[in-house]
Structure formats: C-alpha cells, structure tokens
Amino acid sequence: MNCILLAIKSKTMTLLNPEKVETGPLDPIKSKVVKMMLTSRMQIGEKHQKIACDRKLANYMDHCPEWLKSKDNNSKNWMDLDNKMTETIAVVRAIGAEWFLIPDDAANQEKCEQVEKILFSVMNTMVYLINKICFAPNSTECNNFDVEYARTRFMAKFQPKAKAIEDLLDGPFIMGDTLPVYADYLLYACLYDINVFCPGAYDKSAKLSDFMDKFYHYPSPIRRWFRTNEAKTGEYIRPPVPHIMELLPEELGQGDIH
C-alpha cells in the first residue's frame, strides 16, 4: 500500500503527480467493492457478476437511505463531493438486501447506518483536504501537492472518527463474531482506501486492525475474493487523488468539511 499508483487512461498518477480524474455515475460491474461482495456471495467471474448487476442491481439507487437522499431534484447530495459515497452506500445496501447481508433486528440496522454516516464524512473529508487544502487546481498560490501536509491534516480529522467506528464494532465485526454484514464490507473498503492515502492510518487502533485482519482472513465466504488478482490492485471506492472541486458549488467551497 505504500506505493500509491493508479492507472487512468493509460497514464500514471501518484500522490506526487496528481491528474484529473473524470467522475460519473457508478458502474456496479466496475466497482471493486461490488465485485468483492458479489464474489463472496457466489457470483463468481465477470460474466456472472455482469448478469447479477444487470438483473439485480440496475435500480440500486432505490436503496439510497433517507439520510443521504438529495433534498431537491438533483440526484447528488451536495455534501458528497464527487458522488462516490452516495452511490456506493446505495449499491452495497442493494447487494445486502438481495443477498441477505442486512441485519434482521432494528438495533444492528441502526448501527450499520451510523457506520455509513461516519464513513461518508471521513471519505469526503479526505477528498476535500486533498483537493481544496493540499492541491487546489485553480489556485495561483499552490502548484504542488504536499503529500505529508495532506496526510497530517487528514489524520487529525480521522482519529476521532476512528474512535467512533470502534465504538460501533462489537468485535471483530459490527454484529460481533458472526458473518459480516453489508456495512462491514463498506468499512473494509473505506479503511483500505484510507490506508492507501495514509499508510498506517489505523495501526494504533487495535480494534480496527483486528477488524481488517479478521475480515481478510475470514474463512468463508470472503476469502474467495482475496484469492483473486483483482483484490490485490487498485482502490475500492476512490483513487487517492480524486479531483472534484469543479463539482462543488462555489458558495459551498469555503472551510473544512467535518
């Protein structure tokens, strides 16, 4: 994870060489977190996964939670800087509903939603700090991307959020020592991407480290995914340097996102 590389349109981009990333509606069959979840639910191989996406996930935005829905006719929540987390949360919920990964009881459903809200905040903070604070494409004063400054600013905001996540884990997973639910998959994906951006981000958290280790080594069904080549490359939700500031309305582009 220390080598942060992302191939985009046959070009190489790193934290030291940021390059614009085009964003658009999430394509489930190309989403790494979707592939992980489908593989773990016996939808194996691109052919079967495409069928699953076309037949079962075509209307995944129908599963967008109320707290995340846009308040107007825009399909985009304005707090979601590149719309990635809104769509990702909706699609992992859709998979959870279809393949029995949503808790039955209201208390654990509420815990899953709390995890969603924290991760939504954390991931958008990462995007905001990278683009607005540490590499502002439209700035005349900031021409270089300061990796360490970006990481330092992010970690100051991530640490209290990490503690909040810990409090929601019964250990090792959200529901305890049982089959991971959809929000566990989302948590793994986000923590993986955060660790790509800030290597060692959760090393001091015994609980989050244990979660990642147990998720990775869970005997079934997730281990099937981690044996694939796709599991070994790329990020799950976002590249480490997603340029999205042109999507943020100018009047909302002031100050930090908490």
Write a compact overview of the structure shown.
By secondary structure, the chain is mostly helical. The protein is 46% helix and 2% strand.
Question: What does this entry look like structurally?
Answer:
46% of the residues lie in helices and 2% in strands. It is built from eight helices and two strands; from the N terminus they run E-E-H-H-H-H-H-H-H-H. The protein has a two-stranded antiparallel ribbon with strand order 1-2. The model is unreliable at 1-16 and 251-258 (pLDDT under 50).
The shape is globular
Q: What is the C-alpha radius of gyration, as a whole number of Å?
A: 18 Å
State the total count of DSSP E strands.
2
Class per helix and strand makeup: mainly alpha
Strand percentage, roughly? under 5%
* Share in helix: 40-55%
Low-confidence stretches: 1-16, 251-258
What is the first-to-last residue Cα distance?
A: 26 Å
Q: State the major sheet.
A: 2 strands, antiparallel
**If strands are numbered along the chain, what order do they take across the biggest sheet?**
1-2
Helix run count = 8
Order of helices and strands: EEHHHHHHHH
Q: What's the mean pLDDT score?
A: 80
